[in-house]
């Protein structure tokens, strides 16, 4: 059975632990690339990654973007959004259906 996990700074991932989601806190001196690869090996289908950590491991995340699993979803941390997650979601929607139906303003054509 596939699982859901979240990796990011400790303060942010603790909120997910209350929901029963497996958490993988990343400290400043940890290697987030290694942590993500370890999570992937454990059959996680959905991995939420905070945007601040995603900035450090962008190349590793890109390796999984063309694969069906895991789905890596970028989320803001407890300090707020950096806009990376929304940009990634917009790209995924455009890639999937060929147009931006979520963020396009009324009257715009794509």
UniProtKB/TrEMBL annotation:
Check the record and name the NCBIfam families matching this protein.
Answer: PRK01395.1 (NF002384)
Q: What organism, scientifically named, is this protein from?
A: Calorimonas adulescens
Family assignment?
Belongs to the V-ATPase F subunit family.
Pfam families, per database record? ATP-synt_F
Magnesium keyword on record: no
- Under the GO molecular function aspect, what terms does this record hold? proton-transporting ATPase activity, rotational mechanism
InterPro entries xref list: ATPase_V1-cplx_f_g_su, ATPase_V1_fsu_sf
Reading the lineage from the top rank, the first entry is: Bacteria
Keywords of the record, alphabetical order, are: Ion transport, Transport
Q: What is this protein called?
A: V-type ATP synthase subunit F
